[in-house]
Write the structure tokens for this entry.
Amino acid sequence: MTTPYAHAFWSLGDGRGEIRQAELDCTGELMIRTCYTAISRGSESLVFNGGVPPSEYQRMRAPFQSGEFPGPVKYGYSNVGVVEQGAHDWHGRYVYCLYPHQTHYCVPAEAVIPLPTEVPPHRAILGANMETALNALWDAAPSVGDRISVVGAGVVGSLAAWLCARIPGTRVQLIDVDSRKRTLGDALGVDFHPPETAEGEQDLVIHASASDAGLATALRIAGFEATVLELSWYGNHEVSVPLGEAFHAKRLTLRSSQVGSVSPGHRPRWDYQRRLTLALSLLADDALDVLISGESHFRDLPATFERLTGKDDATLCERIRYG
């Protein structure tokens, strides 16, 4: 089967998007029909609204990106599809690829990872988020028995809390200003608290709310000589950091984490493919379906992005279907 063209979503960089035709040339490569993609509420919203700082134009490039920031740009990195053309032993296999929102695409075999048999395609779209959370735990280095807080119950924050709760003896609290997210704590097996009732004296705090208030909460509840891991991505938004009060007296460490580089402690032995393969394998738990709280069709992506970038939208992960 030959598909001479496909359709792809492009962010214009000014709060608008459009679907364009894309030519396909699959010579010597796999042709993949997309089944699902996912929208990153953090980085993709910034791209959609033109919020990527010029200093980060090169570092923010996604694999297989087309166009340049601030836009128009074909951007995205969580794609689950099925191989329809190419090497015979790949035919019919579900694969994960860091590819933008597009109906069909062609990539080398080394650019995709076969889905583990125990991970359904509809959940595998969480792969990029799980990879970010996994890298954050490598950066944070939580220990057996630690009191751990995650501030910000978005998809990445919730996954980080879920991973931390699997370390023996840990006490994990997930903190968010939206009380509707209490159900996430129940589903993921962690305690949920609004900021005002969160316990203090934490051994480790992971901040993932992308808000000044959330960062202030993270610093407030950290214990003596604890680490606050900053996992948020603010783009061109200036952040107010409360480094007065007890920040120095508690000798806190404020450390950044970003998935674009493998955590230093693992970098000598781990590459991106090994890390992503592990992240996908961690998605076998049915409880993680709670993080996919919205679904829409590819043809509606321009309107979907406009909705998701609104302040009042409470969707966690939006799954885009192509069938």
Notes: The mean pLDDT is 95.
